[in-house]
């Protein structure tokens, strides 16, 4: 293969390899923002991707429709049974809501960690090589999306925004192996317990909730929601249900396996939760000094306490 | 017309890959199987073998870069692997045979090489902690099967497209 080893070509090849390796290292660093050329490429490619993704979603939607049409009768029966129950719950809910509002007025509390403004988005693409669990959605900075915002489906939390451009954003799903990916969570029940979602068990397809104080009693079946203490996520987004409780490797804290409420495959429409109460930049200490003054725990981001 | 057709097909395949990616992983036999579409690189190999090495390399670098920027956020990974895979394919075909079956087999083998190289890279930087004997049944084999189906269905289209383009080019030069 003489053409491989002519001098000019060899030099070219070497220079190319060096440049590419340098680029890989450059982009592997923790970057806060995509740079401008990157953003332009993302937006342009994202626009083209829409032309392909939207019809695909339409077709899968059609198939789903036919599918659900087939068991309409059965579903109708079931839903009718639930309807009676629903009316009662509805009445109770509005009552409780009113009372909550009244109590808040009395206390003079205006902000609530639970309040958020939903931004509807469509999934443009899922990282096709599927090594990293990332999706790209068709809403970006110009729609008010910022880094680290919570992303969910109707069923529950699925991930958070890790990169934004003017018209697209990249979402990293909860089912990631990335050790720097953390979400501050809360086990609901009679006694509430805090922990951090860290890591994903690929074999069992369950999230792992770590660093739960061993003084707290938690058991299987309890629901886990986002705590809102990381600074950017709203409180109360459903994450999943505990399936197993163990102690961690050092025996100091408890950890739990959580079955995620949302399904991470076949994502089409997602909701980005924009918190209405003041969001605290949950970035790591190196990048934003002032954020450290405000955040008690940087739970949402890598270098959290 | 044919002149534009090759870049056009490449662009379409580039956009179709993530759409297919939305349907994966699927559950077979109680395990999640990842079918990773590698349509673009297979097409580029065909372009390189039957039309022009230089063109294939240029497309490989451009689309590799786009892939990196849009999906991976690690610039240089695919921009490096795509041209290398293309070069390997062209080199191998030159030393064996240009028959379509041979090219198909070589292409599939190189898709496996690409997949394994990516596995190696992501293991190296610590993104994944999947043991190799889990990688083979859950990723490599399903990916190979899915891509071979695609290639068997559309390989001859790629070939005739690239062939026609190179014939056209030769005619124009005469």
Task: Write up this protein.
The complex is a heterodimer of chains A (305) and B (174). Chain A is α+β, with helices and mostly antiparallel strands and 305 residues long. Chain A has a domain at 182-260: Beta Barrel (Thrombin, subunit H), CATH 2.40.10.350. Chain A is built from five helices and twelve strands. Chain A has helices at residues 2-5, 7-28, 36-70, 72-107, 289-294; strands spanning 116-126, 134-137, 150-152, 157-164, 169-173, 182-187, 193-201, 206-213, 223-226, 238-247, 253-260, 269-275. Chain A has a six-stranded antiparallel barrel with strand order 1-2-5-4-3-12. In chain A, strands 6-7-8-11-10-9 form a six-stranded antiparallel beta barrel. The radius of gyration of chain A is 23 Å and the shape is globular. By secondary structure, chain B is mainly alpha-helical. Chain B has a single domain (2-165), classed as Arp2/3 complex 21 kDa subunit ARPC3 (Orthogonal Bundle), CATH 1.10.1760. Chain B contains six helices and two strands; from the N terminus they run αββααααα. Chain B has a two-stranded antiparallel ribbon. The radius of gyration of chain B is 16 Å and the shape is globular. The interface between A and B is large, with 47 and 40 residues.
CATH fold naming of chain B: Arp2/3 complex 21 kDa subunit ARPC3
What are the low-pLDDT stretches of chain B, counting only 5+ consecutive residues below 50?
A: none
> Largest interface, per-chain counts?
A-B, 47 and 40 residues
Helix content of chain A: 25-40%
CATH class of chain B: Mainly Alpha
Tell me the structural class of chain A.
alpha+beta
Count of helices of chain A? 5
What oligomeric arrangement do these chains adopt? heterodimer
Average pLDDT over all residues of chain A: 81
């Amino acid at each position: 293969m003489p053409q491989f080893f002519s001098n000019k070509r060899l030099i070219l090849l070497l220079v190319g390899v060096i440049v590419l390796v340098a680029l890989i290292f450059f982009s592997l660093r923790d970057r806060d923002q995509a740079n401008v050329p990157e953003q332009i490429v993302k937006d342009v490619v994202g626009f083209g991707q829409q032309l392909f993704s939207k019809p695909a979603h339409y077709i899968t939607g059609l198939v789903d429709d036919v599918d659900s049409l087939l068991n309409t009768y059965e579903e109708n029966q079931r839903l009718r049974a639930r309807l009676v129950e629903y009316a009662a719950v509805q009445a109770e809910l509005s009552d409780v809501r009113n009372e909550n509002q009244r109590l808040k007025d009395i206390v003079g509390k205006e902000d609530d960690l639970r309040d958020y403004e939903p931004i509807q988005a469509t999934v443009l693409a899922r990282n096709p090589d599927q090594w990293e669990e990332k999706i790209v959605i068709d809403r970006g900075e110009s729609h008010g999306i910022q880094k680290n915002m919570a992303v969910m489906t109707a069923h529950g939390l699925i991930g958070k925004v890790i990169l934004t451009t003017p018209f697209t954003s990249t979402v990293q799903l909860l089912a990631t192996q990335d050790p720097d990916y953390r979400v501050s969570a809360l086990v609901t029940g009679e006694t509430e317990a805090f922990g951090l979602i860290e890591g994903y068990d690929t074999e069992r397809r369950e999230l792992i909730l770590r660093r739960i104080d061993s003084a707290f009693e938690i058991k299987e079946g309890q629901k886990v929601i986002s705590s809102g203490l990381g600074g950017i996520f709203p409180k109360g987004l459903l994450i999943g249900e505990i399936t197993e409780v163990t102690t961690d490797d050092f025996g100091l804290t408890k950890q739990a396996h959580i079955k995620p409420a949302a399904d991470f495959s076949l994502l089409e429409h997602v909701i980005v939760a924009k918190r209405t109460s003041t969001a605290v930049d949950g970035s790591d200490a190196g990048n934003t000094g002032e954020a450290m003054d405000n955040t008690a725990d940087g739970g949402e981001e890598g270098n959290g306490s | 017309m044919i002149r534009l057709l090759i870049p056009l097909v490449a662009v379409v395949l580039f956009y179709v890959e993530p759409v297919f990616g939305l349907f994966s992983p699927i559950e077979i036999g109680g395990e999640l199987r990842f079918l990773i579409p590698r349509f673009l690189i297979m097409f580029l190999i065909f372009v390189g073998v039957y039309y022009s090495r230089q063109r294939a390399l240029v497309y490989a670098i451009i689309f590799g870069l786009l892939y990196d920027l849009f999906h991976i956020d690690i610039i240089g990974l695919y921009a490096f692997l795509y041209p290398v895979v293309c070069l390997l394919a062209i080199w191998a075909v030159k030393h064996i045979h240009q028959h379509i079956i041979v090219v198909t087999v070589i292409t599939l083998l190189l898709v496996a090489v690409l997949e394994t190289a990516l596995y190696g890279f992501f293991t190296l930087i610590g993104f994944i902690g999947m043991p190799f004997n889990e990688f083979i049944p859950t990723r490599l084999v399903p990916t190979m099967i899915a891509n071979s189906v695609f290639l068997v269905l559309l390989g001859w289209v790629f070939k005739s497209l690239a062939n026609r383009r190179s014939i056209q080019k030769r005619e124009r030069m005469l």
